[in-house]
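COURSE: Structural Biology Practicum
ASSIGNMENT: Worksheet 4, Part C
STUDENT ID: 0417
INSTRUCTIONS: Below are two proteins. For each, the amino acid sequence is given first, followed by its structure token string. Answer the questions at the end about the second protein only.

PROTEIN I
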Amino acid sequence: MRFSGVIGVVILFLVCAWCIKKGIHKRNDSWESYLKEECEANATLQTSFPFQLLLTIDWNKIPQVTSEKCEVFYHTLLSFETKKMVHLKDLSNTEVKKLYGINFFSQLIQNEETFYQFMKHLIAYGDLLEEENFLKESIQVYEYVMSFDYSNQKMRGKLMTHYE
């Protein structure tokens, strides 16, 4: 009886060691493939900036109201009018480099950061409109935000409360 227990423990040990070794090889393979993909992306050069990615903000969809607080905030939003913005959605850094080239990578990331700053301000403006009882206008702002990114759970929740 003791002999079979020892054999069972040895077999269990060997199986565990084999599984651990297999897992390490998988991680090394995925790491190596990641590094290879990253190197390829870093070698990608484009000859011209992808201007088709630049966003144009439709200022007609952002209402201006007659409230001192809202007007000040609206003018803050207008400061984004001359800034370049892109929305790269869910692309990884490696995908951005592969698609648009390493030479434009930092500029695209900076333009995307500007876009997210604009979105934060736009959402805050919608919240302010709601606080100031401009409900129709706040819904308009929230809908415009959603037109850029429907996966935004916070906005979906806000819109649903207005439509109930």
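PROTEIN II
(use this one for the questions)
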Amino acid sequence: MTTKAREMVVMAVTMVMMMFLMTTNASEGPSVHHHLKKRALCNGPRNNDPVKVCVKTNGYGVITAYGTVSQVYVRIQGTKCITTWLSLDNKHSYHFEQSTYVCINYYIPAIGTPVVFQVKVDPNTDHWYPKYFTVQFNQHCWTFYFDRWIYSSLPRTMTNPRHSMTGKCSTT
């Protein structure tokens, strides 16, 4: 193989790898550190009204193993502060099965408007395919779309939520 041919192969492989990385991170936005600005942890008085966090697990298509029985943790960054990692209580193993829509209420300090949502799973997790997450309070709903597989316990970051003022979030 000539030097010119070798250079072309290396360039083609590099371009394919860059395209793959751009596609796999598109909905997650830039790196976690870029979006998680230095906000203080939420530590004021807890709200009397809960913040409802919901997750829709995918369930369409040929694959039937979209769900997980693993422990799932979420963290929300608002315009005022960032929460600690909150456990999406999975006491019932069916919580995150294929096609389910599960909601958990949290009584946490005021976070402001949700701008970044993170999710991570137990290190000993099986694979999981969450479609989207919602954050609901004060008759508002913010939807963070994910729609991809989680294969590891590394935190996944979502930004640019879709906002609804109807107080109702989609469950489909």
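ANSWER KEY EXCERPT:
Q1: Residues 3-24 form the longest helix (22 residues).
Q2: The longest strand covers residues 114-121.
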